[in-house]
Amino acid sequence: MAEDDSPVLFGFICPNCKTDLGNATELLKHYEEEHSEEQDILKSLKDIFGKAKKRILKQDENNVASPGASSSSKVQPVSSIITSEAVNPQTIGSFKCHTDAFKRIRNDRIERFSAETNKLIIRLDKLLMGMPHDPVKKKAHEQAVVPWLDGANVSRCPECTRSFHLARRQHHCRLCGAIMCHDCSHFLNLQTAKEILMGPKEQELSPPSEQELRLCIHCYRLLENRKLMTDTRNCKPLLAEYYEILSEFHKEANKLTQQFLKMSESLNAGETMYKLSDAQTLRLQIGKLAENIDTTSRKIESFGRKNGANISELQLRLQSAIRVATKSYLCTELLQLPSLPTEEQLLGLQEKRRCEIEQRIQEEKQSQISQRTPNIRTSVSHLQTSKNEGGATLEEGWKPENAQMYTSEDPMIQQMNILRGYIKQARAAHMYDEVASLEKNLQELMEEYYKQEYQKEDTFVQENQLEHAEHFS
Amino acid sequence: MNVITAVKLYLTKMTEESGPGMKILVMDKQTTSITTMVYSQSEMLQREVYLFERLDMISAREPMKYLKCIAFLRPTKENISLLSKELRNPRFGVYYVYWSNIVRKADIKTIAECDEYESVREVEEFYADYLAIAPHLFSLNIPVSYQDLAWDPVELLRSTQGVTAVLLSLKKCPNIRYQSSSEMCKRLAEKVRDVIVTEESLFNFKQDDITPVLLIVDRRDDPITPLLNQWTYQAMVHELLTITNNRVDLSHVKDISKDLREIVLSPEHDEFYAKNLYLNYGEIGQTMKQLMEEFQRKAKSQQKVESLADMKNFVENYPQFKKMSGTVCKHLVLVSDLSNTVANNNLLEVSELEQQLACQESHSSQLQNLRTLLNSGNVRHKDATKLVMLYALRYERHSNNDIDGLLNILKKNSVPDSFIKMIPRILKFRSKNSRLNETFDTQEAVVKITKRFFKDLKGVENVYTQHVPLLRETLDDLIKGRLKETTFPFLGENSAQISRRIKDVIVFMIGGVTYEEALAVHNINCSHQNIRIVLGGTTIHNSASFFTEVQNATANLPTTRHDNRRM
Ligand SMILES: [Zn+2]
Ligand SMILES: [Zn+2]
Ligand SMILES: [Zn+2]
């Protein structure tokens, strides 16, 4: 048919007589009528049409008419394409940073701005220092700090350009001495002025002052900006405080969960590195944390909802969002920890593992037999280094305290007692990896100790013992 | 070469740079769409982004200084002035500002001078300036690109920005090829090249030895594809229900539950959808059934919650359980709505004739079938219009064509005038020297069709999916190094020295792409280990949005009914 290399014509062409039949049905009919003797070709043609038709008209159980194309079953889902990116993960696209340029421009401007503000602050400080109560003396004091502009030649207010007269008198800004009318004056409460100078916490108890300072708009704005900036720097609303607590819980929970996953995996594999009781304690601890997280987030959600406090709609949305995020965190991270084996199951698992290991050892024994010398020396030096690391490398939050005095004279017994103390402290701080490695050390130390006790009776190995003792001095 | 990953990486970095603490994400209309395409709200919540706000629709003025503000904005004039206003009186403690494209130095200065409270910590350009729809598909959400069949200047700028952002986010500095028959392709190609030249330092990537290709094509060369009914899941949903920014409106469905009135169809967050979006209608029904069975099996096992162990099991499985039941409901509603639409509107019959018109050469019988179907009255006005449009595109130059007769049938069936006008409009819209004309005029091209049809009969394709979009052929030619330089020249290069080897290709179609074309590109990517193609368009069309595009493109051109009787 069309696959032949003979010149191909267009349309629905009969493969025998090359007539164009226009469409598939016509072609079939023509074929049946004109070339019925060539049955096999007809059969194959019919087959092809039949298959296509079946596929097209096939109804599946859901009564969905199916114009299925078999080609699409070859279509792979988007996710399954294996690309070179699977090997070399795509990195972030290019980006351009304007921060430095931005800050340069901003600083140029801010410098002028803050120099001016600082000048005003110094003057304000001088004004408030020893401000007399007597109005006449007060005026003199004010003018001594900031000389007032001579108003003789000023006929209009520079702010609003209205002319001065009897009913609209000249006034002076107490911080820059500029002239303005009463309507263009701004007033700074002395109490507020003190807050700007000293910060809000200093005079919590003093009542708001009746006295005010008359300022021009420019000076007023500069001071107001300064106040806003310090206010926001100092004030920390309840919501923010609670959120910080929540974040701390989160951090702690993440840490413990990771630890727990490691332990449960190890226990479920039948390893003896961790103790089941430790894992159980940890699980309880995580449960408690989850409760704390839950309570804190509820608290955050409820701020200002009960007594109709003046809280913006945006903040309410924020509070709800924090709650929603926490809930899904609790569901997906904290409440879905894998389960721990029971004591019995654990014994079974450990037994199974032991058998597996023994079997492996048996298999390897033949080849390893020659190298079987117990390397006491390395085991001891290993113990020492890990002891030294004990204090230095433990993660934040926990350090062994050398609180107890050990009475035994034997350095080895001392060492073992110290280790026991460390283990206790590490367990209390949920540092179970440390517990495991310390316990391993303790185990080795004890084995070594009993070996030595045994050897003490053997006079031929004195030298060896001395050598070991050196390590503990 | 994954645009979803590219956008995600940018957004992830935005949420990380501001460190721990409560955050608000402030966006504009477009960056909101860009963000929601790749990140769900719950994913954002886990990154401590609790609030989302539009810069142009600020809800409250009271300060919330304990919030960190991430501003992700397009560098428009409006945004510059809105952000300046915000910074002069800042509501939030600190600001991290990310522009989705290249921003002018003067604008940086304007904003810096407004930041008297020194609340801005970072100002950066992150080129996530397009909607990533699938790993290999992006859109710019431009509903109409043409103005009297030439560029709308606003959209030329937006397209230039979109295409350069794709290049920058994927770190590609390409050779540019464009469709020579389209003036618009040439303009866009030049604009993109101008950006590459002026922002030389940005485009200075370490690239591997095969230079990527940016191929710019024009929808006007293939007006047929957007007119055809589609039978793969995603394309069907878009054609019959319309997907807007991964969302589908189902409010028309009778007795629909509240949370299904608008559903999200995101391959990033819906595993079922991701697996099945390219399956055809029949297969999707089958998959649906399997999913239901699995769901029922789970649901049943969880009904007998008797022992404590059962309870625990239930709780431990709960999130997946809930997620799964949501997925099942959503797709069940969707598929049954699709099948209603198909059955009620005779779409199988319509589709069969559409495919014949698009792929086969048989004027008299097709005209006959068309008349019969139109006269039967079982066809929606829109489908009737599309069929006549296809006929007109196909047989405009055929000496015996009966476009007038068909228009009369449409009128007799009281098809609205706006629809009837689409027939002369589409003929105006189709590019005059498009390959479409060649396809139907030259014998060689028809041979191609015949060959394909017979191949199809061997079980590869069926009557509803015979059509292969022109883009597929263009890309096949490109890959084989056979794409002619007369039809697709290189921009400004001495083409003799350019290697014909192909690895990374970015295709951009002015006037919008379709999901059928997205599938074609996906198939190419699957079958070529070493070739990665990313497809993008001014928008993703279905036939309804394509009608709007054509209508606007030809709005001011004379469209008397007798235009098409030229010969
Ligand atoms: Zn005044
Ligand atoms: Zn002043
Ligand atoms: Zn005044």
From TrEMBL, chain A:
Every copy of the FYVE-type domain together lies at 151-224
Give the residues annotated as coiled coil.
428-455
Q: Does the keyword Transport apply?
A: no
- Return one GO MF term: zinc ion binding
UniProt-listed InterPro entries: Rab4/Rab5_effector, Rbsn_Rab-bd, Rbsn_Rab-bd_sf, Znf_C2H2_type, Znf_FYVE, Znf_FYVE-rel, Znf_FYVE_PHD, Znf_RING/FYVE/PHD
PROSITE patterns xrefs? ZF_FYVE, ZINC_FINGER_C2H2_1, ZINC_FINGER_C2H2_2
Keywords attached to this entry: Coiled coil, Metal-binding, Zinc, Zinc-finger
In this chain the C2H2-type domain maps to 12-40
State the CDD domains in the record. Answer: FYVE_RBNS5
Instruction: Tell me the protein's name.
Output: Rabenosyn-5
**The organism's taxonomic lineage, starting at the top:** Eukaryota, Metazoa, Ecdysozoa, Arthropoda, Hexapoda
UniProtKB/TrEMBL annotation, chain B:
Membrane topology type: Peripheral membrane protein
In the UniProt record, the signal sequence range is none
Q: Which domain of life is it from?
A: Eukaryota
The alphabetized UniProt keywords are: Membrane, Protein transport, Transport
**One cellular-component annotation, GO:** endomembrane system
Could you provide one GO biological process annotation from this protein's UniProt record?
Answer: vesicle-mediated transport
* Protein location: Endomembrane system
Keyword presence, tRNA processing: no
- Give the family from UniProt: Belongs to the STXBP/unc-18/SEC1 family.
What's the protein name? Vacuolar protein sorting-associated protein 45
